[in-house]
């Protein structure tokens, strides 16, 4: 018996047997062939690399049963049934790319694969029901987004500046919250088209089915998701719980800066600064003789004048004490910024 949906297609090609899938993938992509080989093996798990944005990349085992559950939850949440057309433009070496294939196999989607470039829609001539991107791909695809009806964005924060640019775009765009351990997203939030301009209410992350959340004494998110993980997942993500099924993400506990006794959350400051700075950037804390830690800003690109006085309603503690420019940030293979390695380039 085949362990894939009869309607599954890859690049407009249908398959009758697992051997046909493997034979096609072998001539098409080493990474995709390797994944299918593992997927159709007798093992009940897949080994996946974490992205390495918050630490050293590490291999972890994910149950195939849980990956199938995750695919079904995404299909149900977004109402994406069999014969859904989907564009795979992420690396299949990591969980987000692998899960697009699992959704196709499980739900009977028609998947087209393109190179995971920074502008994946550039030479695409058709439209798709669904795709997944990282923020850099979204940024570079704004003029081509009409080719995708529903888009999920993960692997980084969508800046205020980019968020403003997508408000008038018809594509339904959602930010996702999740990690390799939760088999991609366990929560999503609508980024555009959801509110009238007269009612600029903030949207929060909405849980997928069969997920329960809590907070620990650090105000960090705890996740119980028995359909996708045997373990109770402890995160370093500082959150505000809005309801049993909604939360607001505030930032990483391990990024908090203690500057002169004032605790600063970098992600909150970055959201404010993105009104002012168009390039990629981040803020962090470095040792300081008087403050303990001082807030600094690191911008990717050429040196420029930044006038912080243009910012409205920002406390003086949240204004960077120094600004540095770097030609190119250090990234993971999935295009996430590696803050510590980038900071090392400055030799502060």
């Amino acid at each position: 018996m085949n362990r894939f949906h009869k309607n599954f297609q890859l690049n407009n090609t249908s398959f009758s047997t697992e051997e046909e899938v493997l034979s096609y993938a072998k001539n098409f992509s080493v990474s995709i062939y390797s994944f299918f080989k593992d997927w159709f093996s007798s093992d009940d798990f897949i080994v996946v690399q974490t992205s390495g944005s918050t630490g050293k990349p590490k291999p972890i085992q994910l149950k195939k049963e849980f990956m199938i559950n995750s695919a079904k939850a995404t299909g149900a949440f977004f109402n994406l049934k069999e014969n859904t057309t989907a564009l795979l433009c992420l690396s299949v070496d990591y969980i987000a790319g692998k899960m697009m294939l699992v959704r196709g196999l499980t739900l009977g989607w028609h998947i087209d694969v393109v190179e995971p470039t920074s502008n994946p829609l550039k030479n695409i001539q058709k439209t798709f029901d669904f795709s997944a991107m990282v923020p850099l791909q979204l940024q570079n695809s704004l003029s081509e987004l009409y080719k995708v009806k529903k888009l999920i964005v993960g692997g980084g924060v969508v800046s205020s500046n980019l968020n403003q640019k997508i408000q008038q775009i018809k594509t339904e765009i959602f930010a996702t919250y999740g990690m390799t351990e939760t088999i991609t997203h366990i929560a999503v939030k609508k980024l555009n088209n959801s509110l009238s301009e007269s009612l600029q209410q903030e949207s929060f992350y909405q849980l997928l089915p069969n997920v329960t959340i809590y907070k620990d004494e650090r105000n960090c998110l705890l996740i119980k998701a028995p359909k996708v993980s045997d373990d109770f997942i402890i995160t370093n993500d500082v959150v505000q719980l809005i309801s049993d099924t909604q939360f607001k993400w505030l930032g990483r506990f391990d990024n908090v800066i203690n500057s002169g006794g004032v605790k600063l959350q970098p992600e909150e400051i970055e959201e404010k600064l993105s009104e002012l700075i168009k390039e990629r950037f981040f803020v962090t804390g470095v040792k300081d003789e008087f403050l303990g830690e001082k807030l600094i800003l690191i911008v990717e690109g050429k040196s420029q004048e930044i006038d912080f006085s243009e910012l409205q309603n920002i406390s003086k503690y949240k204004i960077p004490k120094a600004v540095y420019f770097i030609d190119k940030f250090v990234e993971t293979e999935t295009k996430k910024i590696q803050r510590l390695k980038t900071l090392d380039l400055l030799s502060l």
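The longest helix spans residues 64-78. Helices lie at 18-26, 30-39, 64-78, 95-107, 135-140, 160-165, 266-273, 339-344.
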